[in-house]
Write a structure and sequence with these properties.
Blueprint: H1 2-52, E1 69-72, E2 75-78, E3 81-91, E4 94-104, E5 110-118, E6 124-132, E7 135-138, E8 140-143, H2 144-156, E9 159-168, E10 171-179, E11 184-194, E12 196-198, E13 201-206, E14 214-215, E15 222-225, E16 233-236, E17 261-269, E18 274-279, E19 284-290, E20 293-298, E21 303-304, E22 309-315, E23 323-330, E24 333-340, E25 355-362, H3 370-384, E26 391-397, E27 401-403, E28 409-410, H4 413-424, H5 434-442, E29 452-459, H6 466-476, E30 481-487, H7 493-502, E31 507-510, H8 516-528, E32 532-539, E33 544-547, E34 560-566, E35 572-579, E36 582-589, E37 594-595, H9 599-616, H10 622-636, E38 643-652, E39 660-664, H11 675-679, E40 692-693, H12 722-752
Parallel strand pairs: 3-17, 5-39, 14-40, 23-37, 25-26, 25-29, 29-30, 30-31
Antiparallel strand pairs: 1-2, 3-4, 4-11, 5-10, 6-7, 6-11, 8-38, 9-10, 9-38, 12-13, 13-22, 15-16, 17-20, 17-21, 18-22, 19-20, 23-24, 24-34, 26-27, 26-28, 32-35, 33-34, 35-36
């Protein structure tokens, strides 16, 4: 009994010690886990509190479709958002468009937003409104520099302001200053434009995106000498001095959702019974209030702004009206708009003259994707239409150039076969050096005046040095006629129409592979049939200022469109010309003119175009042309390269001292384009390129990145394992403490024994 008790008493302290040691180790394990958790909180707590503390800061996965995220100081934020609504009323010969751009600022900062966007080349922009809350501020037309000064002053003093500027006749910039945190500002512009007619078909085109422009490097200098005969002048070396203003940041579609959602409504009031109404590149819903009207909306509600919207309509009768006459009284003057379609050339007896046709095809990087497919199919069709009596040649260009034959060759089967093989092997690559290709095409080596000489130029027109091309055509056109074929979803229509005008030709657009045969057939109808030449217009009883000043030749199925300012609406208009080898004339009594809208704006816009052409052809000195343009723009309140619209909210909104951030709104890559063909292979470090440089093919590293629009949210790989090392160190310290306590306890138990 005594032995049992003694053993029991000896074992009890040991058991208690083990229990205490187990509880101690459990407590230490829990402590280690808590310390590790605290270490993680200390490491990442700043980022969590920043992203959860305000609604404007997001994680990349939280972004909604159509939003753009920017990363600054390790924090992901939603960028300025833009929505676009377009409402068009087409009434008879003209259309009125209202474009509303909705700028929403989801950030906590005061922001200035700039957005570069396209408009129709022939549109006259005459209205700017800025809507803030329930206030509507109407813009005023000012000289460009004066408007910029007014805007900058309002921007500096914290007033909300909007500014509309023209960069090209088809490229505009809207700037909106002092958009407050969480605030939405609406900017609304309106413009007037004539409806286009070709044969039996009427159409309107709404550009939605500015394609990235190739801007040649500033190498060749141009010199302007003073007129005072002093021998002094100025030299400019940059062919695109405003390259930064026409090169908005472009999102890579492989790394970003589409932005700038757009809704479109067209209210069509044709003035005659309508037949087929068709949208060529967007799905639409069509309502029919009556047989002369249609309401067209997008079937999907909104679409990304990444391609032109094209709508065509035809009359229910087999033939469209061949004559249209419309008038408008503004101030003390009457304005007239006349459409006359001459008879087709088949009614003439002239035998077609043999032709020399030079085909030029653009195979630069911007033509990658569907555009090069369209261009090659179009050129293959054109080669198949050549006649045995024709001669031809083919030129291809990117930032280099090849001429297939040393000189134009007969259009026999062997030569056409060689050309077809040459075209089928082309690949899109490199920059867009268009001017050398145009020079080569206009070089008239045959000099055979017994042949009609035609240049057919297939391109998307994605260059910034349009003026150099116009000067080349003006200087070298000789007896050649230039026919431009616009390729792709967003061609540069300003370049196409002006080049065709200066080259005494015509412009055709092909927006999809399905349109190739139809549109090329229409082009060859123009190429193969004599033009209506020697056109004159004479008013019998009134003084008239007519535009265009030099009436161009008219090709098959094209109407002659004249605009005039009259001192009184009386008498008649007589138009004369030659259709092939036969004289032709028509007389239009002015009292039969119907009421029209916006004709004074259209007349002024066309007069401004006349002055620009005369300036390009050196028929007017630059100072004289600018003086005429400025007077017309101020009198008729329209935006030009010399005038702008500015709207200022008189009440300051941004607190004094609060910073203002600039946000350049990005645009989508035009549909069908390939990002890497335009900007080079995607780099490992995300970057955005503002413009296409002359060295786009050979030295991609030299291109300038755009910080305003990163193509993806990627965190930099600069992290270390510091957190893990800290946790490991803490664990080792705790283990050392446990071992120290355990050894200390053993010593105490040994001493006690």
């Amino acid at each position: 009994m005594d032995t049992y008790d003694t053993a029991d008493n000896d074992e009890h302290p040991m058991l208690k010690g083990l229990i205490k040691l187990g509880l101690f180790l459990l407590a230490q394990g829990i402590a280690v886990m808590l310390m590790a958790f605290v270490a993680l909180l200390v490491s990442f707590g700043t980022s969590w509190s920043a992203t959860t503390g305000q609604a404007s800061l997001l994680q990349p996965g939280d972004a909604r479709s159509g939003s753009l995220l920017l990363k600054e100081d390790g924090v992901t934020t939603e960028a300025i958002r833009l929505g676009i609504d377009v409402d068009i009323t087409a009434s008879g010969p003209t259309l009125r468009a209202r474009v509303t751009q909705i700028f929403r600022n989801p950030t906590k900062d005061w922001v200035e937003a700039t957005y570069v966007y396209p408009l129709a080349t022939g549109g006259a922009v005459d209205t700017l409104k800025m809507v803030v809350g329930d206030r509507v501020i109407v813009g005023d037309i000012k000289e460009r520099q004066q408007a910029r000064v007014i805007y900058e002053e309002a921007r500096r003093t914290g007033q909300r302001a909007a500014l509309t500027e023209q960069e090209r006749p088809n490229i505009f910039t809207n700037s909106v200053a002092n958009i407050g945190p969480g605030e939405t500002v609406l900017v609304q512009i309106e413009y007037q434009e004539p409806v286009h007619q070709s044969g039996n078909e009427y159409s309107l085109r709404l550009p939605l995106v500015v394609g990235p422009r190739y801007n040649p490097a500033p190498i060749v200098q141009s010199v302007d000498f003073r007129k005072d005969g002093s021998g002094w002048g100025t030299a400019t070396s940059d062919p695109v001095p405003d390259r930064d203003r026409i090169s908005p940041p472009v999102l890579d579609p492989a790394r970003n959702a589409p932005v700038n959602p757009t809704s479109i409504t067209v209210r069509l009031k044709a003035g005659f019974a309508l037949g087929e109404v068709r949208s060529h590149h967007h799905k639409v819903k069509i309502e029919s209030p009556d047989n002369t009207a249609r309401v067209i909306t997008l079937a999907d509600g909104v679409v990304p702004a990444d391609r032109d919207f094209e709508l065509t309509w035809k009359p229910a009768d087999e033939k469209a009206p061949s004559v249209g006459l419309f008038r408008e009284h503004v101030g003390d003057a009457d304005y007239l708009l006349a459409f006359v379609t001459p008879p087709s050339a088949e009614q003439t007896t002239q035998k077609p003259l043999p032709r020399e046709v030079v085909f030029v095809i653009d195979n630069s990087g911007s033509m990658g994707g569907t555009s090069i497919v369209q261009a090659k199919a179009s050129l293959a069709y054109a080669l198949s239409r050549l006649q045995p009596t024709d001669r031809f040649n083919v030129i291809r260009f990117d930032d280099t150039m090849d001429v297939l034959f040393p000189a134009s060759v007969p259009a026999d089967a062997a030569h056409v076969g060689d050309a077809t093989s040459f075209v089928s092997a082309l690949q899109a690559r490199g920059g867009t050096e268009m001017v050398p290709a145009m020079r080569a095409a206009l070089a008239d080596k045959l000099g055979d005046t017994g042949m009609v000489r035609q240049v057919v130029f297939l391109t998307d027109g994605a260059i910034g040095n349009e003026q150099q091309l116009f000067e080349t055509i003006t200087t070298m056109r000789g007896r050649s006629r230039v026919f431009m074929v616009g390729i792709g979803s967003a061609p540069n229509t300003y370049l196409m129409t002006r080049a065709a005008e200066l080259g005494r030709g015509a412009f055709t657009h092909i927006g999809s592979v399905e349109q190739v045969e139809e549109r090329m057939r229409g082009l060859f109808a123009k190429l193969e049939n004599p033009a209506v030449t020697g056109l004159t217009a004479k008013f019998s009883e009134t003084n008239a200022d007519v535009t265009p000043a030099m009436i161009p030749d008219v090709y098959r199925d094209e109407p002659l469109v004249l605009a005039a300012k009259l001192d009184k609406l009386a008498g008649s208009l007589e138009i004369k010309g030659r259709v092939g080898d036969r004289p032709w004339s028509v007389t239009l009594p002015l009292q039969n003119a119907a009421e029209g809208n916006g004709l004074s704006k259209l007349w002024a816009r066309r007069k401004i175009g006349d002055a620009e052409v005369a300036r390009a052809m050196r028929e007017l000195a630059p100072e004289e042309a600018d003086k005429a343009i400025l007077a017309l723009a101020l009198d008729h309140q329209i935006v030009t390269r010399l005038t702008s619209l500015v709207a200022i909210d008189k009440t300051p909104s941004r607190p004094e001292g609060a910073p203002l951030k600039l946000s350049e709104l990005p645009i989508n890559l035009p549909a069908g384009w390939e990002f890497e063909k335009v900007f080079g292979e995607r780099p490992q470090i995300p970057s955005q390129l503002r413009e296409r440089h002359a060295d786009a093919r050979t030295s991609p590293a030299a291109r300038r990145p755009t910080p305003a629009a990163p193509d993806a949210i990627r965190l930099p790989k600069t992290a270390t394992s510091a957190e893990l090392k800290m946790i490991a160190g803490l664990i080792l310290i705790v283990l050392a403490l446990i071992l120290f306590v355990f050894n200390r306890r053993r010593l105490l138990l040994t001493d006690a024994a």
